Amino acid sequence: SHRMYAFTTRAARFVAKTPRTASSRAVSPARAPARRVHDAKRAARARIHGAAGASLERTDDAWIVVGCDSDAHGALCVIRGPRRGVVSSVKVIDNPVSTVMINGKPRVRLDPDAMRESAAALGVPKRTRVYLEEGGVEFGFSAQTAFVQGYNFGLWRGILAAQEFDVAVVKPQAWKAALGLKFKGSTKDDSIAMAKMLFPEIVHELSRKRDHGRAESLLIAAYGHVANGAAAAEDDDALCARVRDVLVDRGLVREEGAPLPYFGPYFGMTGEELKKELKARALKVSGTKSELILRLEDDDAARMSRQAKSATA
């Protein structure tokens, strides 16, 4: 189906190590790219990327992850649990807005003062990881809409950074593609339906069409958790398992076979963006998209190895 294709064409490589609770889900082998490195090499790379993400998500008895849909109709969510991936409570907070006059017309815009108060009132410690969506500019957007998207993102990033949170930027095309929501005809209702499946604890707060911002903040947080470090966790990860189960239910992955597709740091980047990054590192820029990603990750692994050696020297 077109949904399966949208999901699997972005699967450059498979994550080598995933939580045992859901290790049997897979992308269709017919669509999965050929493996180009040995399992041991991929496992080492997954551990490196997992360690990078793990340092920013709390792993003690106060595991917390925050998601933020940055536009005026978006929301913040706070997911808590006793340990990584175990969800004990979910809270959503609508983005604070006010009505302002622009060119003689009333417009709904984010309220910076109230945003600061909302961020301070989250009740989470410093260094908590926040997954913040950077609203993309889509075909047909006016200059005004594009400006507002960037303005909203910049406001949230500054306010969250001022609270000393660790802000990780998430591209909408990345999380939507990974969760099977980037297809022709996809609507906000699809986001709400998926969020209800992933977080049944909070379905009562996702009952209206206008709750799509709440739903997307939850999906952003879930995607960020899976993409950054969850694959390297030693223990079972219940949130990761939830994501997989929902994808299986929607027919986006199969129940048997290898783990979820590649969710690494270069997921969602275009070929040109990958080549630009390679060029900046003075690396070869030719090859398929999966080869470009592999080259960047090999370089990342080599850098991490050198840093580890110098630290112990």
Automatic annotation (TrEMBL):
Transmembrane segments: none annotated. It comes from the Eukaryota. Pfam families: SAP. GO terms for molecular function: crossover junction DNA endonuclease activity. Residues 266-300 form the SAP domain. Coiled coil: none annotated. InterPro entries: MOC1-like (IPR045290), SAP_dom (IPR003034), SAP_dom_sf (IPR036361). PANTHER family: HOLLIDAY JUNCTION RESOLVASE MOC1, CHLOROPLASTIC-RELATED. This is SAP domain-containing protein. It comes from Ostreococcus mediterraneus.
